[in-house]
Automatic annotation (TrEMBL):
Pfam families the UniProt entry points to: CBS (PF00571)
Transmembrane segments: none
Species of provenance: Mariniflexile aquimaris
Domain annotation CBS: ranges: 11-68, 85-138
SMART domains named in the record: CBS
Name under which the protein is recorded: CBS domain-containing protein
SUPFAM superfamilies, A to Z: CBS-domain pair
Keyword set, alphabetical order: CBS domain
Residue stretches in coiled coil: none
InterPro entries in alphabetical order: CBS_dom, CBS_dom_sf, Diverse_CBS-Domain
Length: 138
């Protein structure tokens, strides 16, 4: 295992992102279509927040209804992306070591880090990316 390997070697470069103008219904569709759990929220190419699938579940009452699509739509229309997203986002640069990214995620209460170079979102690294990396080392 290379201790100084940069996150650029394992980060997801095919970025799925939202803007504050998007709605939560679109976010849910992206989560499900791409089978992801975290979506950066951007203004132009700058990260202004992070939305997790858990954030949506917190405001959704679909678990208690037979007509989950109707309930989701009603609940999702009550909130904006900006109201639900995490705003104080920790980000890292593409040259940050995989070890350092793992340390940040191990100490924090989130599971994804946007990768930003010169203020522009270029990727995302998740705990799943890290686990897959460590599994492949053995």
């Amino acid at each position: 295992m290379i201790r100084t390997a940069p996150v650029s070697e394992i980060m997801s470069k095919n970025i799925i992102a939202l803007t504050r103008e998007d709605n939560l219904e679109r976010a849910e569709k992206l989560f499900k279509r791409h089978k992801i759990r975290h979506i950066p929220v951007v203004q132009d190419e700058t990260v202004i927040g992070m939305l997790s699938y858990s954030d949506l579940l917190r405001i959704s009452f679909s678990e208690v209804s037979d007509d989950e699509n109707n309930i989701d739509s009603v609940v999702f229309d009550m909130f904006t992306i900006e109201q639900v997203m995490s705003k104080n986002v920790t980000s890292i640069g593409s040259n940050t070591s995989i070890k350092e990214a793992a340390e940040i995620l191990a100490k924090q209460e989130f599971h994804a880090l946007p990768v930003v170079d010169q203020g522009i979102l270029i990727g995302i690294i998740t705990t799943t990316d890290l686990l897959n990396y460590f599994v492949n080392q053995y």
